[in-house]
Design brief:
This protein is of the alpha+beta class. The protein contains seven helices and five strands.
């Protein structure tokens, strides 16, 4: 009888130990599931452990926002001649304003004006991107087919005065031109802006950034029409 009770005691302890181990493994996998991408998580994904875990214990919450799939780029192209020659000559120079404003914020984190202008311009680019999607849906319903890029651009150009985000991005060209002139650059006569998306490589692939042959994919989201600079004579003031 004593041996039987003692044996049961060891069995119970073993059961508690096994249950505690399984609970620890579950908590550990849960933590790695909701944490941001990391080398350890990338390795677990490589071994398909997350796929097996999510089949039974799907987690729909996270400690952090999902990693960005891409970065918005806003590029202004400038010509030293009027817009009537836009189809025959490449632009004279281009400026990517998101990286410029980010660099300015790093130099002076408390520059309120830079922070506000960055918020307005990047927000306008995101609104324009969403607008592009909605207009595509509208034309698809109206035409009964997916519109071509030329049809989509023609619809936007026809109604651009009604789109505040586009007018903001057109107007921001004056800020960019003034900065070009302040740095000793030549005054342009015409310009356009482009909104691009640059892919953000996954953590497991970020080592490729040190490879000079690696280049993140860049996709064109929107390209404005070329406009002549208004009151260009006052840009040097």
């Amino acid at each position: 009888m004593r041996w039987h009770l003692s044996n049961n005691k060891y069995v119970i302890r073993a059961q508690y130990g096994l249950g505690g181990l399984l609970w620890f493994i579950y908590c550990l996998l849960t933590i790695f599931t909701v944490l941001p991408v990391s080398p350890i998580r990338a390795k677990l994904e490589y071994w398909y452990l997350f796929d097996l875990f999510k089949m039974r214990f799907e987690q729909n919450w996270t400690f952090f926002t999902p990693p960005l799939k891409g970065n918005i780029l806003i590029v202004y192209d400038f010509w030293e001649y009027s817009s009537e020659s836009k189809n025959t000559k490449p632009c004279d120079y281009s400026i990517e304003v998101v990286s410029e404003t980010n660099a300015a914020k790093r130099r002076d984190p408390f520059a309120f004006g830079t922070e506000v202008s960055s918020y307005i311009v990047e927000g306008s680019a995101l609104v324009t991107q969403n607008l592009f999607v909605e207009i595509r849906k509208f034309l698809t319903l109206e035409l009964g087919r997916v519109p071509t890029d030329d049809e989509l651009k023609a619809e936007i150009d026809k109604n651009e005065q009604n789109f505040g985000s586009l007018q903001t991005l057109y107007g921001y060209s004056n800020v960019v031109i003034n900065e070009v002139v302040r740095r000793g650059g030549r005054k342009p006569a015409s310009y356009r802006f482009r909104i691009l998306r640059q892919e953000t490589p996954k953590f497991i692939n970020r080592k490729q950034l040190v490879d000079p042959t690696y280049s993140p994919q860049i996709v064109m989201i929107f390209e404005s029409r070329v406009r002549d600079v208004v009151n260009s004579s006052s840009m040097s003031q």
